[in-house]
Design goal:
By secondary structure, this protein is α/β, with parallel strands linked by helices. The chain folds into 2 domains: 1-48 and 132-223, Rossmann fold, CATH 3.40.50; 56-131, Rossmann fold, CATH 3.40.50.300. Helices cover 51% and strands 12% of the residues.
């Protein structure tokens, strides 16, 4: 079994001094198919309150809602399924092959996603003071959101492992996989800015140990 000390580590290049203080609001990010959602589930088992930008996106894209109507107006009938929902497969094909289209979609969705996340975090901070709050934000660095979080965890995996997971999970072609990988910062660039790096190349047992180690470090300053 891999040594958890190599799976979860304090980033050597971070400029923040996170030792011996309250953990504050935690951001989780990383590359596509690196296992961010699984890390979030593991953090919940330790007692964290978790929110996700992807879940917030699904919440705002309700049929007939304002955001979905704006997407339909911007991208046309192909953006919608016959029952009035977002055609995720078609939109994925469009935005991962056209960076301008991707930016248009982000401009339509990100403000509403951000507002919902802020409301969710504020509600927990008021109702459950002292609970550790963790937010999963896939494009945290790409959108310059790092200043909103007190500490950041980056989940990493090799590009080979990412491609294998995308092929198995989503049935994507090599071209589609490359489009999704190139739409985000390289994982190593995100890891260089992180407070904590969690490697997810070696299976659930190693990942569980790595997340447990990060949890202990995060909560040490709050005890």
């Amino acid at each position: 079994m891999p040594n958890p000390e190599t799976a979860a580590r304090r980033s050597p290049q971070t400029s923040k001094d996170v030792a011996g203080r309250s953990p504050g609001l935690i951001g989780v990010t990383g590359g596509i198919a690196c296992g961010k959602s699984l890390v979030m589930r593991l953090l919940r088992t330790h007692g964290a309150v978790t929110f996700s930008a992807d879940e917030a996106a699904r919440a705002i894209l309700t049929p007939g809602g304002a955001v979905l109507n704006r997407i339909a107006a911007a991208f046309g009938p192909a953006a919608m399924t016959p029952d009035g929902r977002l055609n995720r497969a078609e939109m994925g094909r469009i935005v991962f092959s056209d960076s301008d289209a991707r930016e248009r979609l982000n401009a339509l969705t990100h403000p509403a996603i951000r507002r919902l996340l802020e409301e969710q975090v504020a509600s927990v901070a008021d109702d459950l003071p002292g609970r550790l709050i963790v937010v999963e934000v896939p494009l945290l660095y790409e959108k310059g959101l790092e200043s909103r979080y007190d500490q950041i965890i980056v989940v990493t995996a090799s590009e080979r492992v990412q491609a294998q997971r995308l092929r198995r999970r989503d049935g994507l072609s090599d071209q589609d996989i490359q489009g999704r990988l190139s739409a985000q910062w390289p994982v190593q660039d995100k890891a260089a800015r992180a407070d904590y790096v969690v490697d997810n190349n070696d299976g659930l047992e190693a990942l569980d140990a790595a997340v447990s180690d990060v949890w202990l470090r995060l909560t040490a300053g709050a005890k």
